[in-house]
Amino acid sequence: MTRRTLQLTNRLGLHARAASKLVQTASAFDCEAWLEHKGRRVNARSIMGVLLLAAPCGSELMLETSGEQHEEAADAITELVENRFGEDQ
Amino acid sequence: MTGIVLVTHNGLGEVIRHEAEHILGRTVNLTTVAVSYRADPEASLSELRTAMAASADAGGTLVLTDLPGATPHNLASRAAVENGVPVVSGLNLPMLLKVINHVDEPADELAGRACEGGQQGVVRK
């Protein structure tokens, strides 16, 4: 199992397209993935779950992955968030 | 895989598809049928039957409509019942995103997902 704290630095936070990219990334690996924000824990492979976190820029998210590819999944999700979901700002 | 058919008032289905594709960053394989207020019901029924048959995939077909009791929903239900196709009303973006995410599931299970997703999107702050 991998647990990591991620910081959202893109201007729009975890908005719809960003949430969609995160879910696609999490779903590409053979593992379970969970995100936690302000006491709310959701499946990182569920777009509605991730959207309902409504996490703005500056938020800290706790990522937890477990299963066969938990490290690869955590790395890919971390990279996505650190790259601001491919957004300019 | 289940085929998805959106049956809505006029262009609502195309608009909601466009927004879902924008969010997902890819094109989505689904069929939209726009039912006009002025359309001949028999012609619309025929169009719906064709759309449902053409969309059917291995998992069957799922129909999503915008407003229960309205003509698009009523006509879709008539066409659907002939083929045992599930119909879920109350189409919204959360419902559609959920359905697209689980499109590998058979139509009956996907209908349950549609209800769940649609309701998840109604949040009072």
- According to DSSP, the number of beta strands of chain B is 4
Q: What's the name of the CATH homologous superfamily of chain B? A: Phosphotransferase system, mannose-type IIA component
What integer is the average pLDDT of chain B? 95
What gap, in angstroms, lies between the N and C termini of chain B?
A: 36 Å
Helix content of chain B: 40-55%
- How does the helix and strand content of chain A classify structurally? alpha+beta
Report the structural category of chain B. alpha/beta
Unreliable parts of chain B: none
Mean pLDDT across the residues of chain A is 95
Helix content of chain A: 25-40%
Strand order of the largest sheet of chain A: 1-4-2-3
Shape of chain A: globular
Radius of gyration of chain A: 11 Å
- Domain count of chain B, please report it: 1
The helix-strand sequence of chain B is EHEHEHEHH
Written description of the protein model:
The complex is a heterodimer of chains A (89) and B (125). With 89 residues, chain A is α+β, with helices and mostly antiparallel strands. Chain A has three helices and four strands. In chain A, strands 1-4-2-3 form a four-stranded antiparallel β-sheet. The termini of chain A are far apart. The mean pLDDT of chain A is 95. With 125 residues, chain B is α/β, with parallel strands linked by helices. Chain B has a single domain (3-61, 77-120), classed as 3-Layer(aba) Sandwich (Rossmann fold), CATH 3.40.50.510. Chain B contains five helices and four strands, in the order βαβαβαβαα. In chain B, strand 3 (61-65), helix 3 and strand 4 form a beta-alpha-beta unit. Classes of the chains: A alpha+beta (89), B alpha/beta (125). The interface between A and B is small, with 10 and 12 residues.
Descriptive key words:
heterodimer, A: 89 residues, alpha+beta, 4-stranded antiparallel β-sheet, 3 helices, 34% helix, B: 125 residues, alpha/beta, Rossmann fold, 4-stranded parallel β-sheet, 51% helix, globular
